[in-house]
Design a protein that fits this description.
Length: 347
Amino acid sequence: MGRKRFRLGHDHGGRVTVRTVADIAGVSIASASRVLNGLGGSPELSARVRSAAERVGYVPNAIARSLQAQRTGLIGIAVPDIGNPIFIQMVRQAERVISDSGRQLLLHATKGDAAGEVELLRGLARRYVDGLILSTIKVTEAHHAILSQVAVPVVVTGQLLGDVPVDNVWADNTAGVQLAIEHFVQSGRRRIAFVNGPLDTIPGSVRDVAYRSSVAAAGLAVDDDLIENGDFTFAAGLDGTRRLLDRVRPDAILCGNDLIAAGTLHALLASGIRVPTEVAIIGMDNTALAELTFPRLTSVDLGGGERGRMAARMLLDRLETPDLPPRHESIVPFLAVRDTTVPNGDL
């Protein structure tokens, strides 16, 4: 009396099925299947599933096991630059989630090559991984076409150009740039320059538009002499800032990422310009590099690690429940204020 009763699920031959085990263990069919086929799960989950299987005498279906064997237990993650601290943040957090699921993460560097990314997505038809996290900074129509028919689940980190039926997590670059410009203006800066990455990338173009609109909204003139476009690298920040200083003398510089900002800081200090007394600097991404510069770098946090964690979680959910509607999530940025905008002692 009072004992919980289960309606046992059977196939046409009257044999106990995975559904039976899942019902008794109180887990989803996908979770039970993963454990029973040796593809991972938490210790507590695995124990519950195995106990339920023993209780009902579950015997795996040979055909189902052969189909399940197509699962590799591997998840891919493709990023433009494995030397950029923002992608290191992303990969580390994604790896933690993937590892906890009993799978392994494979890293691929795309070098930001859009055509190469499309070929990578086409290659997923060979099913050498169970799913892919793609961090892309250039999105083409070819991306959209292949993402609509990709062979395994894909989660894109980065802004897409339109409605694509894939899970997507992205940083709100526009809000991040607005935070930076507002901080400069509130501290009395009026000639705000921008050393940006390439305009043929999504982050570069979105940040350029946001910079121009934010400067104008603050009642300041938008001056092309205050803008430099290059690459998302230290060297580009160094060279771009040198060119900028040859033309104008800003009192603040927004940088397209922390690597650019580190180059900008070097260029200013080498020119004998005091930071932040004469020129304030803000980077973007708030990577570990921001704490390593001297003075320490104020930076817009765009949630790189959180994007990696969310993308990995989305992908695992998709593998477990393929029919979920596509999810689109954005990260709310915040400004991490440090020494390059606030003099020592005023923090």
